[in-house]
Amino acid sequence: MEFTASQIAGILEGKVVGDPETAVHKLAKIEEGEEGSLTFLANPKYTQYIYSTEASITIVNNDFEPEHELKTTLIKVEDAYKSFSKLLEYYNQVKFNKSGIENPVFISDSAKYGDDLYLGAFSYLGNNVSLGNNVKVFPNVYIGDNVVIGNDVIIFPGAKIYSETLIGNGCVIHSGAIIGADGFGFAPNADGEYSKVPQTGNVILEDNVDIGAGTTIDRATLGSTILRRGVKLDNQIQIAHNVEIGEHTAIAAQTGIAGSTKIGKHCMIGGQVGIVGHIVIGDRVKIQAQSGVGRNVKDDEVLQGSPAINYGDYNKSYVHFKNLPGIVNRIQEIEKNIKRD
């Protein structure tokens, strides 16, 4: 896709300084810009690069005035960073603006779908599936029986959506994600073997939920595993059966949340965090990476460590931990002196 400076300025409501017919077909960082690329300058620390960049077009703030000659055509806007982000969003919309049904695919006779569907090759729509308008289903996606998906949803290649799952509007599900697999439910027998506990519930994703690549969300044993509106999950996360995650909570990669735990709104959870089952985590909680949470957590707490404790207490304790070898040496010296005396 190729765009001219005048076209981009029209999208961003900006002003062109230079050749309005300058064309670009790719994006680049300002220090790595080359001919045919578009970049931006928002951070003053990078100003030096605008004089050497080979990028054909650079988006800058309205108050930018060059001190030296420029090779690049400028587009002046109120906020360069926000404008570049808007352009990235527009670029994605154009890139993913596919429609039509490729072959081969399987569509059950009882499946229904709205306008502007894209269904990639080798995808599967089961019985009583319902898809809204402007749904993009990329190749090799499996959508099981009785799944309901809202409008403006993107499902990337290889994702698997098990039966009975409910997905709201504006959701994005990345490659390899598995939504609705059985929860880890087994009951030990007297002979030491395990019997499977049937997992009869489902998964509900409310509006504007993002699911990262390779993430798994298990169906509930009874009832629903629920991700509330605006939840953002990174790659390779495990959400167990009957977990509930509150609105606009964000969770980084490789975190695991055990069954029936409830997490509040606007929480931020770092990578490789482990959270035990059947606890309640409040709103606006922050959990640092690699922490292990084994207790209920109140609103607004900040935790670190395993087992996780208050962030401030952890840092104070860590100072002592780092000094532990020296402390041990001093104790040993004191003990030697006592024995001599």
From TrEMBL:
EC number: 2.3.1.191
UniProt domain UDP-3-O-[3-hydroxymyristoyl] glucosamine N-acyltransferase non-repeat region: residue ranges: 23-89
Record's catalysed reaction(s): a UDP-3-O-[(3R)-3-hydroxyacyl]-alpha-D-glucosamine + a (3R)-hydroxyacyl-[ACP] = a UDP-2-N,3-O-bis[(3R)-3-hydroxyacyl]-alpha-D-glucosamine + holo-[ACP] + H(+)
Entry keyword annotation includes Lipid metabolism: yes
Pathway: Bacterial outer membrane biogenesis; LPS lipid A biosynthesis
Entry's family note: Belongs to the transferase hexapeptide repeat family. LpxD subfamily.
HAMAP family with a match to the protein in the record: LpxD
Protein name, as recorded: UDP-3-O-acylglucosamine N-acyltransferase
Encoding gene (name): lpxD
